[in-house]
Amino acid sequence: METTVKHCGSQDSGVANNYTLPALLAARAARHGDAPLFSDRQTRWSGNDACTVAARRAGSLAADGVARGDRVALLCSNRAEFMEVVLGCAWLGAVVVPINTASRGLQLEHILRNCGARLLVAEAHFVGAVTALDTQDLALERIWLIGEASGEAAAPTQWETMPLPPLGAPLEPAALADGDPLAILYTSGTSGLSKGVICPHAQFYWWGHYTGRHLGVTAGDVLYTCLPLFHTNAFSSFYQALLNDAELVVDRRFSASGFFDALVATRATVTYVLGAMVPILLSRPVTAAERAHRVRIALAPGVPGQFQEAFTARCGIRLLDGYGSTETNFAIGGGIEQQRPGYMGQVAAGFEARVVNDHDQPVPDGEPGELILRADRPFAFASGYFGMPDKTVEAWRNLWFHTGDRVVREADGYYRFVDRQKDAIRRRGENISSFEVEQVILSHPAVETAAVFAVQSALAEDEVMAMIALREDARLDPLELIQYCEPRLPYFAVPRYVEFARELPKTENGKIQKYKLRERGVTAQTWDLETSGYRLKRS
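Above: the chain sequence. Below: its structure as C-alpha cells.
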C-alpha cells in the first residue's frame, strides 16, 4: 500500500495534551511511520498507511453525506475494513458504532434505533439479520456492503445498498477535543435493553496507556488477538500498538485447535484470552506449537486462579488479570510481578475505588459490597449512556461509577471478584441481558411467563437457563423453543438449559424470585441443548 504522511501533520487542538485518535496517528507516523502497525493477515498497514487510510476513508464518508457527530453503525468481523471505518470516522469527527456480529432481533433493532445511525457498514452475510427487523422508526438510510452479497443478503431492502466505496479523496483531520465521542459501544442491559456507552477519544488513549504498561508492551512487540474488535478488550489493543510502536495482528475468531499455531505464524509476543478460553485450551492434547511461540504474556481477565499456574507451566505464557469495563478503564490491576492468583489486583494509579453497601457507604475490608470507581484523568471513563439520561444518572450517582459487581477488598489493597449484583449473565466472554432473552421467549404464543438466569459452567463462566410456565392447555417442545429463539438472539444467548414449570416462585408483589431458581439450578427434569444433538448456527 502507498505510504504517505501528507495528511498526518501535527494535530494541535490548543490544549496541552491531545489524546484524540487523529493526533495519536500523526504522532505514531512521525516517530515510526514505516514500522508495521496493523494486520488482519491479508492487509498490513504501517503507521503512515494508517494515516492515509484514515484521511481517505474520511473522504468517502464525507462524500456520502456523513458529517461530524453523525453515528455510523458497523457490523463487521475482525478485518481491515473494520479498522478503516473506525479510523475514517475518527478522522472526520463522526462516531462509530461497532455492533456485535451475533446481534439479532430485539437487540439489533434496539441498537440501530437507539444510536440513530443513517449509514450502516456491514459484511454482506450479516445483512440478512438487518432485513429481518421491524424497520419502523429506524433512521437508517443506506448500507455499504463489505464482500460479495448473495442469497438473503442480496435481497432488495428499503434502504439504498451499495458495495463499500473505494477510499476517497483525503481530508484534513477534524479539530477534536479529548472529550469528543469516538465510539458508542453497546453493553448488554441487565434489567432492560442494551445501553450505548459513549466512549470519548481520551478514554481509549488511557486504555492503551494503562494496559500497555501493565503488559510491558514495547517497540517491536507483535500483539495478537482473536477477540472481536467490537468489544473494548480488542478495540483497546489497537491503542496499545499505536502508543507503544508495536503491531496488532487480528484473526476473525478464536480456534482452540489453531490458537497456538496462530501465535507461531504471527510471531506474536503478547496475546489476549478470556476466562473460558484457558480451561478450553488446557483440555486439549499437548502440541509442539505450545512451546514454539514467542509470547511472554497474555491479558487474561477472569481466569480462575486454579488454571493460571497450570497454563503458564504448560505453555510458558504468564497471565495478567485485572478489572475494567466498557464504561471505565483498566482501573484495578498492575504488572505481572504484582499478580496474585484469584485476585484482580490493586487500584492502579490515576483511579479510585471503593467497596460500598446499598447506600454507597464503604464496607470494612474483607466484607463484600459493590465496587464503585472514578478516575483522576479527564475523560478516562465513558461520558454516559447514549439517549438514556436516566440510566446515566443512576450509574454515575454520587459522582462514582457503580459497576454492579460484588467484590471484596483485602486489608493489603488487593481486590477479589465475588459475583454480579446485576441480573446479567456472562457466557463465552459475552455479557447477556436476561431481559432481552426473556422478551424473545415471552413472544412465543405458548409461553405465559419466563425467567432467564445463570447457572454454573464447568468452563469458569455461566450457562443460560430458562424456566418457563406455559399458557393454559399450551404445549411446547424444548427444541422447538430453541429453534424459535435461534434467529432472534445471538447464538451465545440462546439458552442451553430449558425447564417447564406450572408456575414460577414470586414475591408478594409478583416479582419472580430468580435467586430461588439459581439456587435450584439444573435438575434431572432440565432439558440440555448440549446433549440433544442439535447444533446452533453461528453465522
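Residues 21-200 form a domain with the Rossmann fold fold (CATH 3.40.50.980).
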